[in-house]
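Sequence only, no structure available. Ideas?
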Amino acid sequence: MNAIALRNYLHDHIPLSRAMRVEVADVTATNVILAAPLAPNINHRDTVFGGSASAVAILAAWAVLHVRMQTESIAGRVVIQRNTMEYIRPIATDFTATSTIDDEAAWAKFLSVLRRRQRARISIAATLFCESEQAGIFNGEFVAIGAV
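Reply:
I predicted one. Tokens follow.
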């Protein structure tokens, strides 16, 4: 899946991503970087609203799982089960969220359970960046449901 296809998928299936003007800066089978502008995500302090920051982080983590499953021809729905978000510093400009699936042992376990039970969980992190500095850390647990 390329950046345009992923952006279109997000905008068509998760309308909030369109309203937030989320773009796909980079996508590979194991890494997704989403970008969002300050303007549609601003709060009363002229920084990014915490809910917007969290939403973009969730989208990046969800997207990397979605892309990896698509790349490996794994069918199934992906939903978030729980998450935590740590805000390190205010985000006063456009920002990005980077998420990677690089723990191959966790991925193999996820696939094994999904194949066996048609449902599996995996933890995925995302990092928010603003002006090349870390601005937030997201950790989420996602569930895939369906046939493989």
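The chain has a mean pLDDT of 95.
Hope that gets you unstuck.
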